[in-house]
Amino acid sequence: MAKILAVDDSASMRQMVSFTLKGAGHDVVEASDGVEAYKIAQGTSVDLVLSDVNMPNMNGIELCAKLRTLATYKFTPILMLTTESTGDKKMAGKTAGATGWIVKPFNPDQLLTTIKKVLG
Amino acid sequence: MSVDLSQFHQVFYEESYEGLDAMEQGLLEMDVTAPDDEVINTIFRAAHSIKGGSGTFGFNQVANFTHVIETLLDEVRSGDRGLDQNTMDLLLESVDCMRGMLEELQAGGEPDMTTPDQLRAKFEAILSGESAGDAAGAGDGSAGGAGDGGAGDGADGGGEGGDGVGWLIEFIPEPQMLQTGNEATRMLRQLNEICEGKMAVTAHVDRVPGFHDLNPEHCYLYWHITVNFPLERTAIDEIFEWVVDDAEINISPLGQDVESAAAPSEAQEAQAPSETAQVVDIAQPQVEASAPAEAQAQAAPKKAPQESSSIRVDIDKVDNLINMVGELVITQSMLGELGENFDMAHVQRLQEGLAQLEHNTRELQESVMKIRMMPISFVFSRFPRLVRDTARKLDKQIELRMIGEHTELDKTVMEKLGDPMVHLIRNSMDHGIESPAERVANGKSETGLVELKAYHQSGNIVIEIEDDGAGLNTERILRKAKENGVVPQDANLSQEQIFDLIFQPGFSTADVVSDLSGRGVGMDVVRRNIAALNGSIEVFSEKDKGSRFVIRLPLTLAILDGQLVQVEDQIYIFPLVSIVESIQYKGSKLSNVGGHNDVLLLRDEYVPIVMLNQLFDIASQEKPLDDSIIVVVEADGEKVGVVVDELLGQQQVVIKSLEENYKKVDGISGATILGDGTVALIIDVSGMSKMSANHTPAQSKNVKPHKAA
């Protein structure tokens, strides 16, 4: 069981991710954009961050870069949920310190398999 | 673990509709020549979310369609592509198209793909026509919705021979690899899992510096791994997928030289083949693009959109409600305790408690009503598009200004307000605003202005629709009215009465019937719809300056401001908005015109009289009418004088449906329960006046108005 911060501006995606993770026994904290996620992150540490890329106020790439400046998030796995599997977007994520990515659309099983790579 | 994705569909639809609204609004705001980055981002994000969600939840038609739009918007966003009017029009069309598809899906149907496919072909033509390269770059292959996990599908041909025996892997991380949250141990453990433990790992420590040079956050170790298990090459690529840029990874089939392993490592970057495939895919339907475009006019039969039965409520409102219920519970327990061993000494506390209860109840009622209140922007938001499209069709330049979009009103009222407003706005644009040339000739600016205003005023919501166009042409209205026989040839009407003519059924001043308005089926319907909401509409106009329509509506349909009246032993309620004035029976100028129907001469107007006790068959005692009151009410523009015994107080009443609890009764719109528990009927003013017009003379001959006159 891990504590996971799920960040997505789309309520349906967030619900799906959250429901799947909770179903697998994880503890999930939700945020609807980078600003909210960063605020949450400042107050608590998590085992994994799952973040959408395109979000209002603060996007996933910016969030990633900001999280890496926090001592507690220096090595925390951060996975980007992205539809953009093109090289430059992945590069931007990597440069900002993202651990990896999950390409949308994904189904709940794919999500669980992928996060297993960075948990535990 | 299997998760039923359909449980997220409702949320997906709702947020998609919101996204589409945002897209539409953004597109309308956008200045084609100088697009605002923030607006483009918003539009892009909306399209992006819809694509992501529809792919995830299995709506591949929507995902595929949205994909081309997203691609195009992404190019605009990154500055690779400019926008033109044609693209904007297509984007707006595509918003409608996506909305249609989603509505169809939500209703449980399968969307007709004719229009989407045509639109998509047009977008693809734009994409491939100007910059085929860019299109390829953004074609990320995930649109198919197959959900390929994104991992190493590019590793084609790298693994021949290897699957049979095993692999030799050199894994040499960059020192900074740990800073992206990647850890070698996890990858090794995962590899160990998939090869069922049949691997040997050698860790090399020769890169580890002396203690003083050691950076604890760096990774100095590197590994050589021998996998003695027939794994797919892609499975290995997948494990190291995220660190290919942070590490040197050489994978070679067992039994080959390490040197020759350099070649397969290139396969890591072999995303290209899949993208090329995507390009072919995109370009293909473009050939047929022009042909089906002609058939576009043939619109698919539209299913009735599902009316959304859920509302979004601001969390503050809910919190407030919970808070109030909490207080109510406290008051209740306090009163309960008081009642258990009551003693006259506690009367004062009881009174206090009851006062508290009243206070709580009122607040609770107000808060509950507020839940149904939504900002009028829900209605207003569709108008920018309407104005834009209509203006283009009419070849006029029209600016829409909206004020007070946050004014709240009841959701039910709002739903019924849309159509009348659309009609009024179209009228303003079609008949009110002049063509640019005419405007300039009249010394006005080329661009006409339509202004929507919403605000609260003494328990009502007021909506104004104002234009700076030509104003109502009184001469023409009067001429048309005389031609159509709406008024007699020799009628001499005040300006106000002339304006009122436009609300008459079958009246139209449009010399040429356009497809937008002017069929004369409009304004009377508008007035009727608004009257059905217990509202009123007025028109003000000045020649060459413009017109202003003012709609007044109650904030909610559930509560009514009523005037209580007494007739014999019954209490009836008139909606306060319908009352013009109340006068005493004694001294009123009544006369008997045409034998049986009595009329009241009110200033210079004849108003028919209705005896409520006769109309509703109330057993009446013979008594002089001198003490009676005549309540003059107005419905559908007609005044009626209603004779009642007494005026009681005015109060807000909660409307209960008579149809649901009893059956429909002519002349009655509903009922309410008064403070003492009795039921009072609410009079449907327009229904009542129709009823009285059909009332048989035989029944009215008992009336003895001359007594009083």
Structure write-up:
The complex is a heterodimer of chains A (120) and B (709). Chain A is an alpha/beta fold. Helices cover 42% and strands 20% of the residues of chain A. In chain A, helix 1 (11-23) packs across helix 5 and helix 2 packs parallel to helix 3 (60-68). The model of chain A has no long low-confidence stretch (mean pLDDT 86). Chain B folds into 5 domains: 5-111, Four Helix Bundle (Hemerythrin (Met), subunit A); 135-299, no CATH class; 315-371; 375-554, Heat Shock Protein 90 (2-Layer Sandwich), CATH 3.30.565; 559-694, SH3 Domains (SH3 type barrels, Roll). In chain B, the strands form 5 sheets. In chain B, strands 14-18-19-17-16-15 form a 6-stranded mixed β-sheet. Chain B has a 5-stranded mixed β-sheet with strand order 6-8-9-11-10. In chain B, strands 20-12-13-22-21 form a 5-stranded mixed β-sheet. In chain B, helix 1 runs antiparallel to helix 2 (37-56), helix 15 packs parallel to helix 16 (411-432) and helix 18 (474-483) packs across helix 19. The interface between A and B is large, with 49 and 51 residues.
Outline the fold blueprint.
The complex is a heterodimer of chains A (120) and B (709).
Chain A: E1 3-7, H1 11-23, E2 27-31, H2 34-43, E3 48-52, H3 60-68, E4 78-82, H4 87-95, E5 100-103, H5 108-116
Chain B: H1 9-29, H2 37-56, H3 60-77, H4 85-106, H5 114-138, H6 162-165, E1 167-173, H7 184-194, E2 199-204, E3 222-227, H8 233-240, E4 247-253, H9 262-265, H10 272-283, H11 290-294, H12 315-340, H13 347-372, E5 373-375, H14 377-380, H15 383-394, E6 398-403, E7 408-410, H16 411-432, H17 436-441, E8 448-457, E9 460-467, H18 474-483, H19 495-501, H20 523-532, E10 536-542, E11 546-554, E12 559-567, E13 570-575, E14 579-584, E15 589-593, E16 597-602, E17 605-611, H21 612-615, E18 629-635, E19 638-644, E20 646-654, H22 658-661, E21 668-673, E22 679-683, H23 685-694, H24 697-700
Parallel strand pairs in B: 6-8, 13-22, 17-19
Antiparallel strand pairs in B: 1-3, 1-4, 2-3, 5-7, 8-9, 9-11, 10-11, 12-13, 12-20, 14-18, 15-16, 16-17, 18-19, 21-22
